[in-house]
Design a protein that fits this description.
- The complex is a heterodimer of chains A (292) and B (277).
- Chain A is mainly alpha-helical and 292 residues long.
- Helix content of chain A is 71%, strand content 0%.
- Chain A folds into 2 domains: 4-61, no CATH class; 75-248, Orthogonal Bundle (MetI-like fold), CATH 1.10.3720.
- In chain A, helix 12 (250-260) runs antiparallel to helix 13 (264-290).
- The radius of gyration of chain A is 25 Å and the shape is globular.
- By secondary structure, chain B is mainly α.
- Helix content of chain B is 74%, strand content 0%.
- Chain B has 14 helices and no strands.
- Chain B is globular.
- The chains are: A mainly alpha (292), B mainly alpha (277).
- Chains A and B meet through helix 1, helix 4, helix 5, helix 6 and helix 7 of A and helix 1, helix 4, helix 5, helix 6 and helix 7 of B.
């Protein structure tokens, strides 16, 4: 009877390499690499997604893109999310640090601060529609503490809407940075703090000279991720406002152009531009890390 | 003097923690309150006021039945089970051969998997959509399943990292006993990967449960809706019935809460391991 284990290890090795890699490799090529190349190809055509014919139009889509500042105006929206990430990381770092030391009800605080990250994006979007609506949660709280004069049309005023949405994003993602920082801080050996205390270091010194340096890499990595995250924001503004009132992001714009208006060619050109930006940012990150 | 400063620091510490917890919980608690209120009550009471009747499940029934959330839960469960099983098997298989064997092209293959993580999926949707369409998968559950299997390479990463901690001498001693490579994978590697598998299940499971983009774009058909898309549909017709939407939100959150409370430790570990590449 044929048995796999009777074959020589050399033959086995060949069979198992092919058998174990064929499906993952086919999936990888089909869904990670082919889309990149076909997107580059589409970006040089006028294809609408339905018609059988794709006309090669050279760089026309790119010319359209770069000669209409409108298409790039949406990057201004990304800036709100980018700056929000700084606040998000600062908060995460603060809470991770104090929860690394002795605190009452540590697990409760840890759980509550992290929990929002696990929630469904649509649920979060709706929750914050309720939170920001006129006479909603935020307005009621502000009135209750005597700050009623500060009430705004949180999602109606184009000057404020992106701050509200970026704030929602901080609420959602802070827990993720927090739990990563907490993990990194907990891997610092306890005797380092003890030694520092003997040398007369206070909590601030311990944070500044022990915790911060050991988190440097992770903080750096998260900042770089924040850039690509900020330019590819989609879910929260799309669910909450659909991109209305000046809250449109680059990805919402791309999705609308490609799928709503059937301009696959132009949408692809925008995808290519976005991809190039993200790759440049990532390459800068990689080379920055190599120096260390 | 030192004592006063210390006491102030403690007050500040707890004040900020309580404030943080308040901000994290407030939006959720308000939705919880609203989900038990009647329509009239919702309009006339403050969002911060608890409901008059904590046993008013009418909104939940309406959300569940009219929003067709049952089919959402069923579709989400099917997609979750197949995608996670597939990602665990395929991920551990490819990680096993990439980690244990050196062969012509193995470096290239490893590089191809690493490079793919640099391509953010959201940028290439325009083209991915055409592929799904040409494969005839548009508006089927397989569209989501195959995309979760093929584009999210995080499972391969987690397994590759974990394989570093499984000594090759285990493989070698099994080979002395005449075990085939397949037996080594099945009987040694796979069982020892268990902690990594738990991480993959948690990280992927939560990502898939919460994903909105993929089902929204690839499975718009009504009976294929998942939790995210079922909930999203409340937006139009229930525009002003926030108490029903609130019940829908709670229905989407409850499974997450149960999983979180029962698997807390694994979830914390999973996310701090799975993310630092």
């Amino acid at each position: 009877m044929f048995k796999f284990s009777n074959l020589s290890y050399e033959t086995q090795k060949r069979i198992i390499i092919v058998a174990f890699s064929i499906i993952p490799v086919v999936l990888l090529i089909t869904f990670a690499y082919v889309p990149v190349f076909s997107m580059i190809f589409y970006s040089f055509t006028d294809w609408n997604g339905i018609s059988k014919q794709k006309h090669f139009i050279g760089l026309e889509n790119y010319v359209t893109l770069f000669t209409n500042p409108e298409y790039f105006k949406v990057f201004k929206v990304s800036m709100y999310y980018f700056f929000a990430t700084f606040i998000q990381m600062g908060l995460a770092l603060y809470f991770a640090t104090i929860l690394s030391f002795k605190v009452r009800m540590k697990n409760f605080f840890k759980g509550v601060l992290f929990f929002p990250y696990l929630l469904n994006g649509v649920a979060i979007g709706f929750m914050f529609l309720i939170f920001f609506r006129p006479d909603g949660t935020l307005d009621t709280v502000l009135k209750a503490i005597g700050l009623g004069a500060f009430i705004q049309k949180w999602l109606g005023n184009p000057d404020i809407i992106n701050i509200s949405l970026a704030g929602t994003s901080v609420w959602r993602y802070m827990g993720f940075n927090f739990i990563i920082f907490l993990g990194a801080i907990s891997s610092i050996p306890k005797d380092v703090y003890e030694a520092a205390e003997i040398d007369g270091a206070n909590r601030w010194h311990q944070f500044r000279y022990i915790i911060l340096p050991s988190l440097k890499r992770i903080v750096q990595l998260n900042f770089i991720l924040a850039i690509s995250g900020a330019i590819s924001v989609f879910e929260i503004p799309y669910i909450m406002t659909g991109g209305a009132n000046g809250s449109e992001t680059f990805v919402i714009q791309t999705v609308n152009i490609a799928f709503k208006y059937g301009k696959i060619g132009l949408g692809s050109a925008m995808g290519v531009v976005l991809l190039i930006i993200v790759i440049i940012v990532t390459l800068i990150q990689r080379s920055a890390f190599k120096e260390e | 003097m030192y004592k006063v400063k210390y006491a102030l620091a403690t007050v500040f510490k707890y004040a900020t923690l309580l404030f943080g917890a308040f901000v994290a919980l407030l939006p959720i608690v308000v939705v919880l309150f609203a989900s038990f209120k009647t329509g009239k009550e919702y309009m006339s009471t403050s969002p911060l006021a608890p409901p008059e009747n904590w046993l008013n499940f009418e909104n939940y029934v309406r959300a569940f039945v009219e929003g067709n959330m049952l089919s959402g839960f069923i579709n989400t469960t099917i997609i979750l089970l197949i995608s996670i099983t597939g990602a665990t098997l395929l991920g551990s298989m490819i990680a096993y051969i990439l980690h244990r064997f050196k062969f012509r092209g193995s470096k290239l293959l490893l590089g191809a998997f690493l490079l793919a993580t640099l391509i953010p999926g959201v940028t290439t949707q325009v083209a991915t959509f055409q592929i799904i369409n040409e494969l005839g998968l548009f508006n089927t559950r397989w569209a989501a399943i195959i995309l979760y299997l093929g584009t999210d390479i995080i499972a391969v990463y987690i397994f590759l990292q974990f394989l570093d901690t499984i000594s090759v001498s285990l493989d070698e001693s099994a080979m002395l006993d005449g075990a085939s490579y397949f037996t080594i994978y099945r009987k040694i590697i796979l069982p020892l990967l268990k902690p990594a598998i738990v991480t993959v299940i948690i990280v992927k499971g939560i990502n898939i449960y919460n994903d909105f983009y993929t089902p929204f774009l690839y499975m718009p058909k009504a009976d294929l809706q998942v939790i995210s898309t079922a909930l999203f549909k409340f937006k139009g017709p229930y525009g002003s019935q926030w108490e029903v939407i609130s019940a829908g939100i709670m229905l989407a959150i409850i499974p997450t809460l149960i999983v979180f409370l029962s698997l807390q430790k694994y979830i914390y570990n999973g996310f701090s391991q799975g993310s630092v590449k």
